[in-house]
Amino acid sequence: MRAVWYDTFGGPVSVREVPSPRPAPHEAVVEVAATGVCRSDWHAWQGHDPDVSLPHVGGHEFAGVVAEVGAEVRGFRPGQRVTAPFVHACGRCAQCARGDHQICARQTQPGFTRWGSFAEYVVVDHADVNLVLLPDALEFTTAAGLGCRFGTAYRAVLRQGRVGAGDWVAVHGCGGAGLSAVEVAVAAGARVVAVDVSAAALDLARALGAAEVVDASIDPEPAAVASVVHDLTDGGARVSLDCLGSPATCAASVLGLARGGRHVQVGLLHGGATPVPMDRVVAYELDVVGSHGLPAHEYPAMLGLVTAGRLRPDRLVGKLIDLADVPNALAAMSPNGPRLGLPGAGMTVAVLSQV
Ligand SMILES: [Zn+2]
Ligand SMILES: [Zn+2]
């Protein structure tokens, strides 16, 4: 099969022929129809993720058709349209027994702990636990974003953030996860303040229903950003999400909260310590929680809202590319890379087939 492959961190990325996978007894092999290109894939390529070993094939948010299932798989068969979360849970550990598959102690992750979906075929571990059937009307290109950014945002806003109608919600970082969070929070009836350094990202956030936007490039100091958020929200946000994952956005998010507010850390923080302003956490009695993906068993509720038109992940798809363009899309995320992939201005999706 064709796959986007590299054997050095930060080095050349190329499309080449590699052996197609065969399923172990509990696995399914999915023919990839579409796969999102996410900032986490860039981090993996740059060597920021200790789970990645070389050579590697990235890609962790995908949709496609079941091609083959292992002997122990009962609930799925070839030909079904499916997706899966980026966390493939074991289904048996203590966390899984509680339903917390997204923090499974024995999880695998395509594109990180094993080869991923920048390829014609990808393996889904413990297929009966992790595969999700797609509604017929949901396009593969839209479904490709559910496994990472949209599903993650859905859980971060509604489950971990407990956002309700009328709440002021701040979203720091309006890339894929952040824009998804804006959309989910708006659908929940919240008033959203979107924060980013990119005017294009803020325009998209406004188009998705953000009531206010803050251009953090004007004064990126966390205290300055937080001060603007306090002014716009009449005393601070009820819930605030750091969807980028940097020391600055994390601090700005915590500092922008109202008393008794709740910070949700969504963006992965790579490398180094992140100083959380714990003095404020104490003085304002803030909740600080993490959010990590969405378990497969929570997909039906989300897909129901998508089918009903109350959530519109299709609006987050920005640019459609071929598998052969994935190396360029990754390079475009580098600070001095070519401006091709427009990270932060809609989701880039590689389309492999229309199966
Ligand atoms: Zn588990
Ligand atoms: Zn991702």
**What would CATH call the class of the largest domain?**
Alpha Beta
| Percent helix range | 25-40%
Count of separate structural domains: 2
> What is Rg?
19 Å
**CATH architecture identity of the largest domain:** Alpha-Beta Complex
**CATH homologous superfamily title of the largest domain:** Medium-chain alcohol dehydrogenases, catalytic domain
EC number: 1.1.1.1
GO molecular function: alcohol dehydrogenase (NAD+) activity; zinc ion binding
Domain Enoyl reductase (ER): 10-342
Cofactor: Zn(2+)
List keywords for this structure.
single chain; alpha/beta; 6-stranded parallel β-sheet; binds zinc ion
Describe the structure.
The chain is of the alpha/beta class. It folds into two domains: 2-148 and 294-351, Quinone Oxidoreductase, Chain A, domain 1 (Alpha-Beta Complex), CATH 3.90.180.10; 162-290, Rossmann fold. Helices cover 27% and strands 23% of the residues. The chain has twelve helices and 16 strands. The protein has helices spanning 39-46, 94-97, 127-130, 140-143, 146-160, 176-187, 199-207, 222-232, 247-255, 278-283, 299-307, 326-331; strands at 2-6, 14-17, 28-37, 56-57, 62-69, 81-83, 121-124, 132-133, 168-172, 191-196, 212-215, 237-242, 257-265, 287-290, 317-321, 347-351. The strands form three sheets. Strands 3, 5, 6, 7, 8, 15 and 16 form a seven-stranded mixed sheet that branches. Strands 11-10-9-12-13-14 form a six-stranded parallel sheet, sandwiched between helices. A three-stranded antiparallel sheet has the order 2-1-4, with no helix packed on it. Helix 5 (146-160) packs across helix 6. The protein starts with a strand and ends with a strand. Residues 339-344 have low confidence and may be disordered. One zinc ion is lined by residues 89-90, 92-93, 95-96, 104-106. It comes from Actinopolymorpha rutila. It holds the Pfam family ADH_zinc_N. InterPro entries: ADH-like_C, ADH-like_N, ADH_Zn_CS, ER, GroES-like_sf, NAD(P)-bd_dom_sf, Zn_alcohol_dh. Residues 10-342 form the Enoyl reductase (ER) domain. Keywords: Metal-binding, Oxidoreductase, Zinc.
